[in-house]
Amino acid sequence: MAADAERQEPKQVEQESDHRAEIVAGSEPTDQPLNRRARFWRRTGSNAHSSAVGRAAVFPAIVQNTRNPDILNFSMTTMTIQVRGRGTLTLPASLREKYRLGEGDPLTVVDLDGAVLLSPRVLVVPRLAAEMERLRRARKLSLKDLGGPARED
Amino acid sequence: MARPEKTEPLLVCVDADVLIAGLLSRTGASHAILVLGELGLLRLVLPEVAVAEVRRNLAAKLSEAAPLFEEFLRAVPVQIHRPTPHDRERARELADAKDVPILAAAIGAGARILVTHNIRHFRSGEGVRVVRPRTLIEEARAWMGSFGT
Questions:
Q1: Measured between alpha carbons, how far is A3 from B117 in angstroms, rounded to an integer?
Q2: Using one digit for the tens of pLDDT, what is the confidence trace for B134-148?
Q3: Which helix (H) or strand (E) holds A153?
Q4: 10 Å Cβ neighbour count for B98?
Q5: What does the alpha-carbon distance between residue B2 and residue A150 come to, in Å, rounded to a whole number?
Q6: Among the listed ranges A10-14, A127-131, A140-144, B17-21, which one has the minimum average pLDDT value?
Q7: Residue B53 to residue A3, Cβ atoms within 8 A
Q8: Which end of chain A, N or C, is less packed with Cβ atoms under 10 Å?
Q9: Kindly report the CA angle at B13 between B79 and A143, in degrees rounded to 5?
């Protein structure tokens, strides 16, 4: 049935889920700002780069989207960290403590093609979508066949 | 240093075609919106009629995927909204007749954005901006990309 097919009224109203997710909202400033680790920056970066990274360090702020005031609704902390050998990242201790992360704990990486998010949660949506997409392709159904768009954005 | 003020995530109403595209394909903006919803960066409002439409379509053509959609509804923080007659009245002039319940749900839930592939079926108003999935993701990406600059 197409998406623009006549919509029908269901009989039941479902309740809001109890599950709530938060990420990097209202976080405290880290207790280990990267600009205190002078030896690390001297050892691993160029002068210009390490200086810039050191200055950036950690700056809690209420971030506003100047392009679109609809999207401004988070307070958050941003941090600058550096990729090391073989792609290793070190999360500041304050974040490890806040999210109770230990060695071996999984993180989810979300690539928005220009912004990369790290989540301490293992997400359900990618797993479900992978399985549903596999089932759809096995049946040789398009998104449009199922009421979706003719062409995905 | 003062703790930053904590505010609520953006309320985004999701049409049925975005739900279908986001759950049955992993490559598009619709999927990214559902992921951002699960992360809590967006708060997803699902019109009751959109949920019913997805259920109906899956039951008719891909019934083996129906339990996975139910798992999505249980596991991801979503608000399923049934609009009131007053919400419908407010939406009546801003949407094609068959789509009034979708926009009415967005208005009634207080969503500031309705995301749909059928933007021609709606007009922005009553505090709700109607956008395509790609537009929302591009705006979110620009917002996130501005951090640390």
A1: 9
A2: 999 988 888 777 665
A3: none
A4: 14
A5: 49
A6: A10-14
A7: yes
A8: N
A9: 105
Whether A3 sits inside 8 A of B34 (CB atoms) is no
- The size of chain A, in residues, is 153
Task: Give B89 to chain A, closest Cα distance, Å.
Answer: 16
Q: Which of B26, B41, B51, B54 to mutate to test the interface with A (most CBs of A within 10 A)?
A: B41
Q: How far is CA B112 from the centre of its chain?
A: 10
**Which pTM was predicted?**
0.73
Rounded to whole angstroms, the Cα distance separating A115 from A38 reads: 27
Q: How far is CA A103 from CA A90, A106, A116, in A?
A: 11, 9, 21
Strand partners, B125: B128
- Residue type (1 letter), A55: R
End-to-end, the C-alpha distance of chain B in Å comes to 21
- Which ipTM value was assigned to this complex? 0.91
Q: Which of A59, A91, A96, A93 is nearest to A78 (CA)?
A: A59
User: In whole angstroms, what is the distance from residue A146 CA to residue A85 CA?
Assistant: 46
Q: Do A132 and B52 touch (CB under 8 A)?
A: no
